[in-house]
Specification:
alpha+beta; 2 helices; globular
């Protein structure tokens, strides 16, 4: 999973996106962005994780 987080960070850097950013994710992506928020809090303003038909604001 850390490799996926590293890929997301590399994409953000390559795109030169100004942070922090708001992320929305579902299923496995939710796990990725949860780890991203914990390991790179400077990149994440907020994130929303959807599971099935339920959506919760993480954090």
């Amino acid at each position: 999973m850390q490799r996926d987080v590293d890929d997301v960070v590399a994409l953000i850097d390559a795109a030169q996106l100004p942070g922090p950013l708001v992320f929305a994710a579902h299923s496995y992506g939710g796990l990725i962005f949860d780890l991203l928020a914990r390991t790179h809090p400077d990149l994440v303003a907020d994130h929303i994780i959807g599971v099935g038909n339920q959506v919760r604001r993480a954090g």
